[in-house]
Specification:
Helices cover 31% and strands 7% of the residues. By secondary structure, it is α/β, with parallel strands linked by helices. It has 2 domains: 147 residues, Glutaredoxin (3-Layer(aba) Sandwich); 183 residues, Glutathione S-transferase Yfyf (Class Pi), Chain A, domain 2. The protein has a 4-stranded mixed β-sheet with strand order 6-5-7-8, with helices on both faces. Strands 1-4 form a two-stranded parallel ribbon. A two-stranded parallel ribbon has the order 2-3. Helix 4 packs parallel to helix 7. The longest helix has 21 residues. The protein is globular. The model has no long low-confidence stretch (mean pLDDT 95). One of its GO terms (cellular component) is cytoplasm.
C-alpha cells in the first residue's frame, strides 16, 4: 500500500512505522453472511473469516461493477494485478494503472490519454477517495477497488483484496484457475505470510525509511535473517508451500522482483543482492517466467517510482540505468525439484490487449513492440 501524501517518508531519529488503517469494506459473494464480528482483530495479512471490522460494509460481487486501480510500480498493488490475472478475473474486474511518479496529493492517471482514467473519468485517484469520503484523512493509496457507478473507493485493504479475489469471486474464475489458498496448507501458509510481511515485504521499507542508525541496523539484520531462512526453505522445495504456487508466493515475489532494481541500493539493503542468493534467485526467475507473474512487471516504472518520488532519501531524483534485465530469462532449473506451478489447473492465457508492459521495460515482451 504505497501512499502519495507524505512529502517525507523518513522521520529523523525514529523507526519507520507503516499506517495500517485501511478502508476495511469487503466485496463478497454473499453480503448477508458478512457481519461485524463481536471480537474482530484486524491483522496485516488479511482474513478468511466472514467477519467485518467495526463500521465496515459488505459490497456484492458483481462482474463489471468494480475497477481495480493498481500502479505497476507498487509491490502491494502488483499483488492484486497478479492474482487477478492468475484467476482470470479480467472480464469481471477492469484495471486502471496510474503512472509511477505521483505527486504529494495523489496517484495520477498520467499514462492514459489526456491523463484521464477511461473507466472512471478522473485524473487523480484522490478524486475517487474524496467522492466517497470528502475529508479522507489518510494517504491516497493503491491498490484500490472503486465502485464504477458512484466513482467512490470501496476498499484499499490490499492484503484482503487478493484473498477475496480467491474466495469471493469464484463464480468468475477462469477454467483451470489455480487454488492459491489450499486448505491443507492454510495454517502454515499464514504463518509464513506473516513472517514475510513483517520481515521482508515491510522489512525493506523499515530499512529504507529508518530515521536512525539503530533503526536501520535492526531492520537490516531482521531482513537478511528472514532472507536466509527463505533461502534455506527454497533450497529443497520449488515453492513456499511445496509443489504449487500459492498466495504466499505472490506476496514474496513482488518484493524479490524489486530487490536488485530498488531495495539493494535505494533502501540500503545491501548485504547481498538477490542474484547472490542461489535458491531465492532461481525461485524468483521461476516465478517471473510463469505466466501471470513476470508479465505484470514494469521494471522502469519500479525504478522511477522509488528513485524519483522518495526525494528525502534520493534528493537528486537520478534513476539508475541497471540492472541488466535479460538475466531474468536465464534458465532457473527449479523443475528438478518437481512440482508444477498450477497443479491440476492451467496457465492463464495471453495478456489482455491494452494490459501489457512496454517491451523496453520487461524482457518477456522483447520483440513484441
Amino acid at each position: 500500500m504505497d501512499s502519495s501524501t507524505n512529502s517525507g517518508y523518513s522521520t529523523p531519529g525514529k523507526p519507520f512505522t507503516r499506517d495500517t488503517n485501511y478502508i476495511n469494506d469487503r466485496i463478497v459473494a454473499d453480503p448477508e453472511a458478512h457481519r461485524v464480528a463481536d471480537h474482530y482483530e484486524y491483522n496485516t495479512i488479511g482474513t478468511l473469516t466472514t467477519g467485518l471490522t467495526q463500521g465496515a460494509e459488505a459490497w456484492p460481487v458483481e462482474a463489471g461493477r468494480y475497477h481495480l486501480v493498481a500502479a505497476r510500480a507498487c509491490p502491494w498493488a502488483n499483488r492484486t494485478i497478479i492474482v487477478r490475472r492468475l484467476l482470470g478475473l479480467e472480464d469481471a474486474i477492469s484495471l486502471g494503472t496510474p503512472g509511477p511518479t505521483h505527486d504529494a496529493n495523489s496517484w495520477t492517471f498520467d499514462l492514459d490519454p489526456n491523463g484521464v482514467d477511461p473507466v472512471l473519468g478522473t485524473q487523480r485517484l484522490q478524486q475517487n477517495y474524496f467522492t466517497r469520503f470528502p475529508e479522507y484523512p489518510r494517504g491516497i493509496t493503491v491498490p484500490a477497488m472503486v465502485d464504477i457507478p458512484t466513482g467512490g473507493v470501496v476498499t484499499n485493504d490490499y492484503p484482503q483484496i487478493t484473498l477475496d479475489f480467491s474466495t469471493e469471486w469464484t463464480a468468475f474464475h477462469r477454467d483451470g484457475a489455480p487454488n492459491l489458498l489450499p486448505e491443507e496448507h492454510l495454517d502454515e501458509m499464514f504463518d509464513v505470510i506473516k513472517r514475510i510481511f513483517t520481515e521482508v515485504n515491510n522489512g525493506v521499507y523499515r530499512a529504507g525509511f529508518a530515521g536512525s542508525q539503530e533503526a536501520y541496523d535492526d531492520a537490516f539484520d531482521r531482513l537478511f535473517t528472514a532472507l536466509d531462512w527463505l533461502e534455506e526453505r527454497l533450497t529443497t522445495r520449488r515453492y513456499l508451500m511445496g509443489e504449487h504456487i500459492t498466495e504466499a508466493d505472490v506476496r514474496l515475489f513482488t518484493t524479490l522482483v524489486r530487490f536488485d532494481p530498488a531495495y539493494h541500493g535505494h533502501f540500503k539493503c545491501n548485504r547481498h543482492k538477490l542474484i547472490e542468493f542461489p535458491a531465492l534467485w532461481a525461485y524468483a526467475r521461476d516465478l517471473f517466467q510463469t505466466p501471470g507473474f513476470g508479465d505484470t512487471v514494469d521494471f522502469q516504472q519500479i525504478k522511477d517510482h522509488y528513485y524519483i518520488v522518495h526525494r528525502d532519501i534520493n534528493p537528486t531524483g537520478i534513476v539508475p540505468k541497471g540492472p541488466v534485465l535479460t538475466q531474468w530469462l536465464s534458465r532457473h532449473g527449479r523443475e528438478d525439484l518437481g512440482g508444477s506451478p498450477f497443479g491440476d489447473g492451467s496457465a492463464p492465457g495471453p495478456v489482455r490487449e491494452g494490459e501489457g508492459v512496454d517491451p523496453a521495460h520487461n524482457p518477456l515482451y522483447a520483440g513484441r513492440g
